[in-house]
Amino acid sequence: MPQADHSVYYTFTFYLFGLIAVVSAVLFVTRKSPVAAALWLVNTMFCLAAMYVLLDAQFIGAIQVLVYAGAIMVVFLFVIMLLNLGHPSELADARGFGWKMAAGAVGLGLLAEIFALTRSRVPLPYLAIPQGMLGRQVELQGAIAPIAKPLFTEYLLAFELTSVLLLAAIVGAVVLGRRSTNAG
Amino acid sequence: MLAESLFFSAVLFVIGVVGVLTRRNAIIIFMCVELMLNAVNLAFVAFAQVYGVAGQVFVFFVMTVAAAEAAVGLAIIIALFRHRQTVNLEHINLLKG
To answer: Count of A–B CB contacts within 8 Å?
Structure first.
């Protein structure tokens, strides 16, 4: 899909999902109840999945729904339920005024950086963007083949290492979550 | 769509940073970190659209690491809750001078 000639419908849909994602994220950060916060975060992740699909990343969009919105957030909600964090004494958790000012300063600094980057003009030739590489690849090979091929050839070592990482995470979670305190 | 994606990615990342700095509930801070990972993933996918598929492969790895991190981190939070009966980080200050 070339960069320039997106239809109005495409652009509108992209902005719509982006806006919903940002609003959900703001609501997620400001909710007092952890359950409500988690559900708003799930909403943000669904919107991000839609944006991935619009950006020619259909497989990543499906994985986003399955792994992030499906698995990881269910684990979060399960832990919230397990620890019984819904009761009122746990709810008042916003930090004091100094921390809020610090967070605001960090946010303003990062936004200033964005605006400085958008205003700056870097006339280097290598910053020119090749037009729509991935869209053509998806049209020719389908949505999964372009990502599967590098995953199992160029990045095979990293792929195998992630299996070791996941095994270590399983063992670590079981050891940390065990009830006896003398071992582990 | 690259500029728009990077804009939304930056905004979501900033919201995550503000959440980490302003909240004291350990689980919510943890979810803010997940939001920041998601924002970075959006930037990766947007760059993958124009520069080739390597960005999407990287998103795949980021998601794997996020899943492992969620499992271990939540186990740590559960162990912490068993010891201190709270997940409020103001009350978990053993290393504070």
So the answer is: 221
Q: Which amino acid is at A133?
A: M
B67 with A83: Cβ contact below 8 A: no
- Rounded average pLDDT over A83-100: 68
pTM attached to this predicted model: 0.81
Structure tokens at A172: 């670590």
Question: Which secondary structure element, helix H or strand E, spans residue A43, and what is its range?
Answer: helix A34-54
The total domain count for chain B is 1
Q: How far is A169 from chain B (nearest CA, A)?
A: 5
CA A109 to CA B41: how far, in whole Å? 22
Q: Decide if B90 is inside a domain.
A: no
* CB-CB under 8 Å, A29 with B23: yes
Q: What is the pLDDT of residue A3?
A: 47
Residue B40 lies in a domain: yes
Q: B91 in a domain, yes or no?
A: no
Chain B 45-84, residues with CB within 8 Å of chain A CB atoms:
45-46, 48-54, 56-57, 59-61, 63-72, 74-79, 81-82
Chain B interface includes A119 (CB < 8 A): no
pLDDT along chain B (97 residues), means of 10: 88 92 90 94 91 89 92 90 83 78
- Would residue B31 count as lying in a domain? yes
Per the structure, the complete domain to which residue B76 belongs is given by: 2-84
